[in-house]
């Protein structure tokens, strides 16, 4: 069943020093979008469009097997996979630049039903050589 939903996405990113401790100010971003929620036997799929400084991206969040894939196509090109305790390599592209990205997922919390819910991701990310601690919270209603 395909359902229209409202999304609120909050991301908080902290720079890490060589010892792995946070330093400097946090980068916080909150966005809201309208999208679609599709729950099937295989997965939960959320699709939406988001506007960024570089233009618009089509985004997709797929929850399956305890993991979460976040794909973006358009002004931002990326495919990041989050599964607790695992590390995944990817490429993060903001044309004309491409960066190697490494995501080490610390915790994944998925609470979804046909009426909505939330996804909470805690992870460390190395992008372009800089290591960051991050949290992404997604509310679906």
Describe the protein in words.
The protein has 141 residues and is mostly beta strands. The protein has strands at 2-16, 22-39, 44-52, 55-64, 67-74, 77-82, 87-94, 97-113, 116-127, 130-140. The chain has a 10-stranded antiparallel beta barrel with strand order 1-2-3-4-5-6-7-8-9-10. β6 (77-82) and β7 form a beta hairpin.
Record keyword descriptors for this entry:
10-stranded antiparallel barrel; 141 residues; mainly beta
How are the SSEs placed, and which strands pair?
Layout: E1 2-16, E2 22-39, E3 44-52, E4 55-64, E5 67-74, E6 77-82, E7 87-94, E8 97-113, E9 116-127, E10 130-140
Antiparallel strand pairs: 1-2, 1-10, 2-3, 3-4, 4-5, 5-6, 6-7, 7-8, 8-9, 9-10
If you compute it from the alpha carbons, what radius of gyration comes out, rounded to the nearest whole angstrom?
Answer: 15 Å
What is the beta-strand fraction?
Answer: over 45%
> Could you give a short account of the major beta sheet?
10 strands, antiparallel, barrel
The largest sheet has its strands arranged as: 1-2-3-4-5-6-7-8-9-10
- Shape assignment: globular
Distance between the termini: 15 Å
Mean model confidence by pLDDT? 91
Helix/strand-derived category reads: mainly beta
**N-to-C series of helices and strands:** EEEEEEEEEE
Query: Treating each run of at least 4 consecutive H or I residues as one helix, how many helices?
Result: 0
> What are the low-pLDDT stretches, counting only 5+ consecutive residues below 50?
none
Helicity, in percent?
under 10%
